[in-house]
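Lecture notes, unit on binding sites. The following record was shown on slide 14. It pairs a sequence with N,N,N-trimethyl-histidine.
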Amino acid sequence: MAAFLTGAPRDPERERFRADALHGLRQAQKTLPCKYFYDAEGSKLFDQICTLPEYYVTRTEFAILERHAAEFPLADTVIEFGCGYGAKTPLLFDAFCRTRRTLTFVPVDISKRALEETARHLPHTYPGITIRAIRAEFDRACALIPREPSLVLFLGSNVGNLDHAESVRFLSALRGHQVLVSFDMQKDHGLLHAAYNDAQGVTAEFNLNLLARINRELGGNFDLAQWKHLSFYNAAAGRIEMHLVSQGAQAVRVLDETHLFEAGERIHTENSYKFSEEQIGAIAAESGFRVEKRWTDEQDWFSVVLLS
Ligand code: AVJ
């Protein structure tokens, strides 16, 4: 009997992390999925990124939401993909609750803490809200959200992590709802570069935390001093890329596998696409939506778009 009981009890989430991490590390071009940035440590670092002087994304989006929240459509059910820690949610709910006593709010996130924090912000302020949290990855969550026509929020330019085909697939699954989605716009390459190479090195720490997380959760032995953050704008692909670069030839163990790295070899950890108005229109059309309205800032650095 005891022979079957080796290792920790089965934890499906850790299992998926293990499978995805090992799969990525076995590729010729090694990769790790960016969704694994957000453990407790990574979420804290991301919150810090959001307040960096170089990272224009969060405050530009916040200003647009603050200015235009009253123009967003009303719905009995609001579904938010990637609710984060709910910092911008109260702002929106002031608007959503202005003409109603009850509202169902469905936050969707893979992080348990993000869901808890978001829920914790709400009930005191809005007694008429019913919260039905869904803890799942976005793809799986699409099958679990309410079917009645709702307002879906997909903010924080999270759509930037998806390539064209993935974003079309994701949005297609939301047909029948109205979707408020935010896109980070193409802009001066120097500004983009700075936003992902901040002077304080928080983005580097955020990127490296992925290896630290593998060490913590998958018994890895990455030596963090042997890895460097690399981020640049790939103009041909229209995206910021983040990589981790091996500082020498090295062997790293993850669970019972050994992975070899050459000096200078990269692990590709994230793509963050930047969009033009034409690309937004194309994604909407291919997903079966119409761009109802686009709100932007004075410099057109960022867009919040209503799809119907
Ligand atoms: C959460 C995907 C919008 O792409 O700007 C920030 C993640 N990565 N700095 C982004 C991120 C490095 C962020 N998104």
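Take-home: The pocket of N,N,N-trimethyl-histidine is lined by residues 49, 57, 156-158, 160-161, 196, 203, 270, 272 (CB under 6 Å).
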